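Limitations
The C-alpha cells in this dataset are predictions for the assembled complex, not deposited experimental models. Users should treat interface geometry with appropriate caution, especially where small molecules or nucleic acid strands are included. An illustrative entry is reproduced here so readers can see what is and is not provided.
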Amino acid sequence: MPFINHMIFDLFCTFPLKKKIRMPLLEFTSKGIYCSKAGVYLDPWKGVNKALISHGHSDHARWGSKHYITHEINVPIIKHRLGKISVNGKKYGEIFNINGVQFSFHPAGHVPGSSQIRIEFKGEVWVFTGDYKTQEDGISTPFESVKCDTFITECTFGIPVFQWEEPDKVHDSINNWWAINKNDKTTSLLMGYSLGKVQRLLKNLDPSIGKIYTHGATEKMTEVLRQFIDFPETELITRETTKKELEGNLVLAPPAVLGSAWVKKLGRLSTGYASGWMSFRGARRRRAVDRAFVISDHADWQGLLSAIKASGCENIVTTHGYTEIFAQYLREQGWNARTEKTQYEVEMHETISNQ
Amino acid sequence: MKRFAKLIEQLDSTNKTNQKVAALTQYFLEAPKEDALWSVALLSHRRPPRPVTTKLMRSWASEITKLPEWLFEESYHIVGDLAETIALLVRQEAKGKVPSLSQCIDEIINLKPKQESQKKEYIFKRWKSLNNFERFVFNKILTGGFRIGVSQKLMTRALSKAVKINENILAHRLMGQWSPKTITFEELILNPNPQDQISQPYPFFLAYALEEDFQGKEKVINWHIEHKWDGMRAQLIIRERKSFLWSRGEELITDKFPELDCLANILPNGTVLDGELLPYKDGQIGNFNDLQKRIGRKSVSAKLKQQIPIVIMLYDILEWEGKDIRSYPLMDRQDLLAQLFEKYDGEKIPILLSEVLKFSSWEQVAVEREKAEDKRSEGLMLKDKKSSYGIGRKKGNWWKWKSNPKTIDAVLTYAMRGHGRRTNMYTDYTFGLWEDNNLVTFAKAYSGLTDAEIKKVDQFIKQNTLERFGPVRQVKPELVFEIAFEGIAPSSRHKSGVAVRFPRILRWRHDKKTNDANSLEDLKQLLP
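Predicted assembly:
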C-alpha cells in the first residue's frame, strides 16, 4: 500500500516538482516579473491578480490589477494615480508570507514610498530594486542595502559619464538663479517630474526669496505627500492669478508645460529644468531652457556599482536603461550578469514631455 | 582660460540672443586683448592646428579613467561629442595653475612638433588642472569646432558694442585669412593698416529661400531676375596688379584656379567682383561634380586644367576704382558691371556675365524657372533692383527660388546617433533603393522631419535593430520616406553608381510599404 501510494504520488507530482526545482524564484514573463511560488507579480505591465509595487511612477505602478501591495507611503500616491483600487500598505522591513515565500519592502531612496522588494524562499534571496538612488534627497527614506543572491537592478544611467554633483550644490545654484531672476523682475519656471523630483526641489527651495506657485499636476501630487513630509507653502496658479502676482516668484511645473499656452500666461520667464539627462550638452540645448540643473532620482554610475557591491550578490539582472553595456561591464568585473526585457521606460528627456 | 570657459558656459546656457550678446560684450570688455583676439578667432572657426589625433585622445582618456576602451567608445557614441565625453569621464579635482586662453593656445601650438609621450604628459596635466566645463572647452580647442549657437554675426555685434566700431566695418575687418599668431587685436580690429588689406574681401551677401506669398505681395517690375548658377560662390579681388580669389567660407582659393590669374593684368585695379565659379568647356556649363574634383586637389595639374576649365560667372560689383560701392542700388551696380564686361567681351578671358532678366508678370518668371535644367542652373535669383549689397543673410532683398527638387521613395536601412542637439537619438539615416531583392544604399539624410516624427522614428529604430556596429544600427527595412535632392550625377565612388546632391527627407510615407519604394533603376532614369 505505501508503495502504491508512492507510485501515485510520483505519477502526479514528479513532473511539476522537477519543473519547479528548475524554475528561478523570479521569471520575466509577458505580464511582468513573476514569482510562480507565490503567484504574484512585481511591477507588472499588464493587469494581474496580485501586484507588488515598488513605487508610484506610471511605468511601475500600472492600472488594471485586482490587488496591490506596496509601501504604506506609496498607498495614497497610487490611489491618487490609479483611482479606486484594492491596495494594502506595508512598513519597511515588515516580512509577509505568501505561499511560503517571504516578501518585504526596503527603502530604495528613489521617491517617497519607493521600495526595493526582497523575496526569500528556502534560503535563496532575490532583490528587485525598482528604481533607486544612493544619494539622500531629504524627502525619501534613504536607500538601504539588502544582502541577496540575485540583484535585479535598473541602470537608467548605467554608463560612466554620469556622475552626480553634491545635491546641496545644485540646490544652491537653483536658489541663486531664482534670486537673480527676482532681481530682474523675471519669474522663474522650474520644471521637473511631478512625483518625486518636484517635491525634492520644493523641499530645498529658499522661501525667503519669494513665493512658490504650482501647476495643477504638481500641486495635487505635493498635496498627497504633505501628510508625510513638511514642505514650504505653495499656491496653485488659477485663472485669476495675474502676471504681476507671479513676477519674481517661482513656479513649479511638469516639463510638459514647456511651449504650452499655460506658460505664455506666466509673463516674463527664465526657464529651468532639473533632470539627470541635463548632464548632456545636447540634451540641454534640445530642451531649449535657460538653465539646466543636473539632479536625478536615479543612481549614477558609481551609485549603481556601490549598490551592487553592497548587496553581496552573485547574479545580476539589468532591466532598464543602458542594460547591455552595463551587464557587459559587470561580467568583465566577474559578476554573473544578464539583461532582461521589461516595459519600464527610461524617462528620457524626449519621452518626458509626453507624460 | 577660466574666463573663456565661463563665457562659453554662459552662451551655452541661454536661448536668448540679447543675453548672448551681453555676455560676449562683457567678455570683450574685460578680457586681455590677446585672449579676446583668440576668442574672436575661435568663434569664427579659426583654430590652432590640431596637435594630436582624436584616436590618441580617446585611448589616453580611457587610460586615465581606467575604463576598458570599449566602454569609453560606447560612452562616446552615446554622448556624441568627444570633447564632452572626455570632460564628463575625466573627473578629477581641479588642481594646479590654469593658464590664460592665449597662453593655453600657445601651449597647444607648441605641442605639435613634440613627441607623443610629451604630448600625453601635457594633456594629462591640463585635464587634471581644469574643472569640468573648462576641460570641455580645452578639448574643443584641441579637436576643433565650436558650434555653440553663436553666429559670426552675433559675435561681430557684441564686439562692435565693446570696441565701439560700426558692425559692418568690423565684419569687413574680420574677413579673410588671419591668425592671432601673426596679428594683434590692435592691428586686426582697432587700427588696421590699409596697406595690409589689399587682399581683404567683403562679407558675402546671402539670399533667403523665397517665401510662400511673395508673388502676391511684390510687384514683378521691382525685381531683377537671374539664374541661380550651380557652382561655387567666389569673390574676385583685383588690387595693385594682383588677383585674390575668396570662397564663401573665407578661404583664399587663388591657387586652385590659376586660369583666373591673367585677370590681374586685364581688369582695372581696385575692382572687386562677386560671382560663381563654373566648369565651362566648349561653350557649355559643366557639372558641379567636376568642379568638386578641382577643389579637392592640392595642386592643379595642366591636365586637370584642360579637362575641367573654369570660368567665373559675374553678377555683382562691390568695389570700383578703389571705392566701396556696395551701397549703390543694384541696378546701377549691374549697369557698371555690364559696361565693364562689354570692354572685354569677345576676348579669350575666363569671365562670363550673368544675364539680368526683367519680366512683366510673375507667370513669365515661373516659365523662366522651368528652363533651369536647360540653362544648367538651380533655379532663379530674385533681387530687389534698388537694394544695396548687404552683409550675410538678411531677409528682404535677395531671394532664391530654386527649381522643384527631384524626389524618390526609399527605405530606411541604417541609422546613427545624432550629434550636438540631437545627441542620444537616432537621427542620421541611411536609405536604400531596390535592386533585384536587395536594398542598395543611395543616400544619407538627417533633416526634414519634425521633432515629433524624429521621436517616433527613433523609437522604431531602437525597437527594430537587426544589428549594431558601434554607433550605427542596421534597421528592419520597414519605413519608407520620400527623399528630395537637388542634382544627380553618375559616380564611381558610390555603391549605387549615382551621387545625389543635398538629399533630405521630404516626408514620411506612412501609406507606402517597403515594396512600394523605388528601385535604383528608377533613380537612374533621372540622370540627365
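Some entries come with short summary sentences. For this one: Chain B touches chain A through 33 residues (CB under 8 Å).
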